[in-house]
Amino acid sequence: MNIYLTDGQYVDLLQRARSNLDTISSAYGFDDTSIGNKSTKTNVGLCNDNLTVDGIRLFRGRRTMKYRGPSHKCPLDKREKHNGSGCFYTCQFFQNGLRDLSIIKHLYDKRIEEVSRDGV
Prior knowledge:
Elements: H1 7-21, E1 29-30, E2 41-42, E3 52-53, E4 56-57, E5 59-60, E6 63-64, H2 92-96, H3 101-118
Antiparallel strand pairs: 1-2, 3-4, 5-6
Helix pairs in contact: 1-3
């Protein structure tokens, strides 16, 4: 079994996450401060527990069932590419206090446009 999302699943994930933004009224998150196996998440990032890809739940409790590949960047991550490590310290939501849904939607739209135009 492949433990990584395919490029198609990643694009689907971006589109589902973007559609989800139209159904919420505010951005919120939870910063797990426990040592070790952290479960920090937000309802506006790709770390949203409720997102699924082709019926595959991405998160179950604290364990990721599918991993994003190196080019599968969350639109809220300030890095150019997702490198497989956690994104908490480069997340615009957690580190910069980004809560404006219109800006978050714009970041998703921009990323979806990029991968549609240039590929993943």
